[in-house]
Amino acid sequence: MTGFLLGVLSSILATVVLGALAWLRSARFHWWLLGLLSQYSPLGLRRVYRKQRSTEKDIKRDLAKARWVKVLAGRGNALTRDAFAPLWRGDLSVASVRILLPDPEGGPNSWLQRREGDLRQIDRGFAEGVLAEQVRVNTRYLSRVAEERSGIEVRSFDLPHLWRVVATDQVAYLTFYPRFSHGRNAPCLYARAPGLLYDMALRLFDSAWSGSAPPRL
Known about the structure:
Layout: H1 2-24, H2 27-38, E1 45-49, H3 56-63, E2 68-72, H4 85-89, E3 96-102, H5 111-120, H6 130-148, E4 152-157, E5 163-168, E6 171-176, E7 188-192, H7 196-210
Parallel strand pairs: 2-3, 3-4
Antiparallel strand pairs: 1-7, 2-5, 5-6, 6-7
């Protein structure tokens, strides 16, 4: 019996060790370690998400604590989903919401059209004009919300599609878009105020806002 128990225990131990080694070699561990170490740097980086699309639950949590919100998006699909719904319903005590979306009426030489051309390389569903129409639909949706609720502003910009910013008075989610990849699959940095990354996220938003204009719908 003792030999049998020792054999079972040794098998369990070997399985645990092999599992731990596999985890240490995994990409998930590398991202977790990066986020842990970055907490002790002056950047203010607290977490790294492997993919932007995995941030929505945490964004919803941080929006519930915000006094103001600033969002610069490359398309705006996430703004119509569950994470942002409490903002549009008026469930949150947020004094100001500023939304920046690309100008869908910029024409064939706009940055939006250039981004569409890049996405077409990896997603053949992006026929000419598809991305602009998606932005147009989201802009209409948010503009209607802004008409019904005070404190919400929606504006358009024509700048390179290099980043997404979701910021509040306490935190910022910052995504840098790869050229030939959907933004939802790009890594996202989570920074808290005060910190260099948080300040950079606000500067990116404010710079785009200063050159923006009301949507041409």
